[in-house]
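Section: protein folds

Sequence with per-residue tokens
===
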Amino acid sequence: SFKEEFFRASMLRKSALVSISKAFSSLMNLVFMVYSVNLLTKTENGYLQFYLGFVPILLAVAEFGLPSAMVKFLSPHTEDPKKTGAILASSSIVKLYTILILAVLGVGFFFQSQEDAYIIFLLITGAVVASFASFFESILVSYRSYGYMSLWTPLPNAIRLGLLIGVSRFTPFSLSYLEILTIYSISPIFIFAYFFWITKSLNLNWSAS
């Protein structure tokens, strides 16, 4: 029927839009890495890649399975403000616990390995920031806001790449692996306000009351 064909075509467009968005995000991440290699010596690039290798491990702890759980439990209740509020409030508490766990792990690792405290801070911060980005993305998926999601998905890598290029080309600073690690870990935090701006129409309730 026409209705079924229209729905199928609409879903196909949305799927294509999200796929293009994710591909664009991956491309910007690749360009970030290639651009970084050209800015660093071979030794410094080795350091950068070594420390970035810890991010996926820490991210797994920081996410704590929340993105997939959010889609599973939030999607059926997006029309019920009370239930969505309870889910978002409880998930926010879980996020706080994961941050605390990572902080404790970071302190323990510092005393065990005598690694640079600033690098540990960057790795933990990077994992937490990335976990919030995927957490917010799961909310958009739950509300089937695929248009907003296609805008949101590439933003973390876009701001990383933009800041890296801007600092390297338009400032007198010579970037080391530490500055690039700082840009990679912290810069996506500046997009979080944008999430709350684009989701105004969703009327998200973050309390159980």
User: Anything to note?
Assistant: The longest helix spans residues 2-39. The chain has a mean pLDDT of 88. The chain is about 80% helix and 0% strand. The two ends are 43 Å apart (CA to CA).
